[in-house]
């Protein structure tokens, strides 16, 4: 606004503008018909200038030198009302042709200047005004903020229709995405009003932590529910998925659900159990038969082994005990309803025959003699039913031992026995073979022990 020396009406008989102004002789406001003009001390008419009336309010002389009323003035930065008075420190409602609203809103600060292309805090609420000063509603500033129908900047969770044009983007991204019948989604706006959107880099491009909870957000910030792939539209690995509750929070802990639609051929059942960590990442493991003991997961006091599809395995599983995979044993994870490590003696279906197994307190299949019976990788070893006694060679570190056992798996200790072919075996107190038909036995290799009948479920 141009600074001028303001003329105050001096005549006692003058009436302030807005209630009828008397004409002044040489200087000041002069009524000319239905209009008002202003003459300076030189007697010249003023144009495109602000002048204050005796009532203390500012008025504007337009390009014709006439006091403007009900119009935008001074480069459209100010507005004067029906009395020509500058609108200042208040809202202004201006009619428009919009059939829905019928009017627009503008705000003028204490100096009368219209707020344009900026945020303004008014009565503890934030509003955004475009480059014409029009108060904005809906999505603003590249759809990163949202102002309600009253213009107030929104914060926190808001259920909104997506930005204009997002239907085309949905098609490009594999949509339409899950929403309710009203076509709206949940969006979250920080306390500064800015919309929360996923990170643009990294693996978890669609996951975001909000108020201590993880949520899965579409690229525009729309909250997603159900199975969500965080690395793209689809993936062939369950590790790239998160399961999102109806309230938008990423599921953690145990949860049963139908697998993602495009992965369902990896599963044996329509509904499976999954375990999600605190970030919502599903527990996964190696391919069946290639697990190491380090892959075992202890959860709430139970031990599990997960397959690559994120489902805990069950049955007898082969697990390597060292990095170079030179040594392995069996672990038993029960049936499907259990799917957790079991210990001690177990009766297990072994190729159609119920066979006894023994697992240590750590879950490993036991190899050696336990309670006078011979086990290998947890499996009870038995002499062939037609041989009466049989010698099994069990590797013990870098050496091996030859045990003599009967058809029930019991070792022959400190005795001499004959098999059905009449071969005599003499054993020591540990059931280890020391003589065969009277000849001293030094080493040698006999029958190989039977490995467990490895389960192939969950592959």
Helix/strand class:
mainly beta
Oligomer: single chain
Main sheet properties: 4 strands, antiparallel
How many DSSP E strands? 36
As laid out across the biggest beta sheet, the strand order is: 33-34-35-36
On the 0 to 100 scale, the average pLDDT is: 88
The residue fraction in helices comes out at under 10%
| Proportion in β-strands | 25-35%
The coarse overall form would be rod-shaped
Summarize this structure briefly:
Helices cover 2% and strands 34% of the residues.
Could you name the key traits of this structure?
single chain, 459 residues, mainly beta, four-stranded antiparallel sheet, three-stranded mixed sheet, 1 helix, 2% helix, rod-shaped
Can you describe this structure?
By secondary structure, the protein is mainly beta. The protein has one helix spanning 166-172, and strands at residues 28-32, 35-39, 49-52, 58-61, 71-73, 78-80, 90-95, 103-108, 118-122, 125-129, 138-140, 145-147, 156-160, 185-189, 207-210, 213-216, 226-229, 241-244, 253-257, 272-276, 291-292, 297-299, 302-304, 316-320, 328-332, 344-350, 353-359, 368-370, 373-376, 379-380, 389-396, 399-406, 416-418, 424-427, 433-436, 439-440. The protein has a four-stranded antiparallel sheet with strand order 33-34-35-36, with no helix packed on it. Strands 21-24-25 form a three-stranded mixed sheet, with no helix packed on it. The radius of gyration is 43 Å and the shape is rod-shaped. It starts with 27 loop residues before the first strand and ends in a 19-residue tail after the last strand. Mean pLDDT is 88; it is low at 1-25 and 168-179.
